[in-house]
Write a structure and sequence with these properties.
With about 300 residues, the protein is an alpha/beta fold. About 50% of the residues lie in helices and about 15% in strands. It has 3 domains: about 5-70, Multidrug-efflux Transporter Regulator, Chain: A, Domain 2; about 85-175, Methionine synthase domain (Methyltransferase, Methionine Synthase (B12-binding Domains), Chain A, domain 1, Orthogonal Bundle), CATH 1.10.1240.10; about 180-305, 3-Layer(aba) Sandwich (Rossmann fold). The protein contains 13 helices and 9 strands.
Length: about 300
């Protein structure tokens, strides 16, 4: 049995973030020959390019790190590399766990439409031992908030904001399958944003994290009327319904439709979780009965852990 699989073609690499032997040796502060020995022994699984070079996938790197009890705390910078540029800036931020600097780098790359750059930043931080929930809460969310503020003040255009959002979503979508996830727990969830809500990032984050926790998730996305949530509950019979909103219009009608959703959820045994600025006012929450109101993603993970 070969320790490394050989690529049939470059297309098979797909959108995965692959690390080279040299990169791993620098991140782990070991020699390249040590990395090759681990790969050749089968302890560290790799794939090989048509040219015979070893390449390592993110999930396998994290698995190996955990089995060995270390993180990728070394630097990707080569000795004598200039102190200028994005890579040294990222390495310094990772070394200091400077989430503000990482969020700034994230926003700049997202605004440039640099999916690979955003993905590399997240992958490198993940290998450094930063959990997925912290990446979401302390890097991605602050970065997107900064972009939103710059749009509101007229510094950025709608096109800029849309490019950044799509870049962030694409990078997260590509990265998630490579991250370690818990075995399936047999539980299912429906996640989305209500009518008139045009910001999908929060629901994407929720789906992302639940899937890493072993859930099967149906993501309805943004601008989904509550009667459509009800249809989804009737169809999928989920254990959990997560609704995220930054605004709610026509409260009388929406609360009435939401009430029908909650009635069905109770009948089917689904728990309903709400979150976001749209539900932040206690008076609004009183009109939308729920099993939990989560101010952040950690609150959500604590709630689902109790399930």
């Amino acid at each position: 049995m070969k320790a490394c699989k050989t690529f049939v073609s470059e297309i098979e690499v797909g959108l995965e973030k692959l690390f080279s032997t040299n990169e791993l040796s620098r991140m782990w502060n070991v020699s390249e020959s040590t990395v090759k020995r681990w790969a050749d022994s089968g302890d560290l699984q790799c794939v090989k390019t048509p040219g015979g070079h070893r390449r390592f996938q993110l999930d396998e790197i994290v698995r190996f790190q955990r089995s060995q009890g270390f993180d990728a705390v070394g630097s990707l910078m080569t000795p004598g590399e200039s102190s200028e540029g994005v890579l040294p800036e990222m390495e310094r931020a990772l070394e200091r766990r400077d989430f503000s600097a990482l969020a700034d780098l994230f926003s700049r790359r997202a605004l440039d439409g640099d999916v690979e750059g955003v993905g590399s930043l997240l992958a490198r931080a993940y290998l450094r031992g930063i959990p997925a929930v912290d990446l979401q809460e302390q890097v991605v969310t602050p970065a997107m908030h900064r972009i939103g503020e710059r749009w509101r003040t007229g510094e950025l255009t709608v096109a800029d904001e849309h490019i950044a959002t799509r870049t962030a979503v694409d990078a997260l979508t590509r990265l998630q399958p490579e991250m370690l996830r818990r075995p399936s727990n047999g539980k299912t969830a429906v996640v989305g944003c209500p009518e008139d809500e045009l910001h999908e990032m929060a629901s994407r984050f929720i789906s992302f994290l639940l899937e890493l926790e072993g859930w099967t998730v149906t993501t309805l996305g943004m601008n989904t009327p509550f009667f459509s949530f009800r249809d989804a509950v009737e169809r999928y019979r989920p254990d959990l319904v997560c609704i995220s909103s930054t605004l709610l219009n026509d409260l009388d009608r929406q609360s009435r439709e939401y009430g029908e959703l909650c009635t069905l959820a109770r009948e089917t045994g689904a728990r309903v979780v709400i979150g976001g600025v749209g539900f932040s006012e206690p008076g609004v929450r009183a009109r939308f009965p729920h099993d939990a109101y989560c101010e952040n993603l950690r609150d959500l993970l604590r709630f689902v852990a109790r399930m």
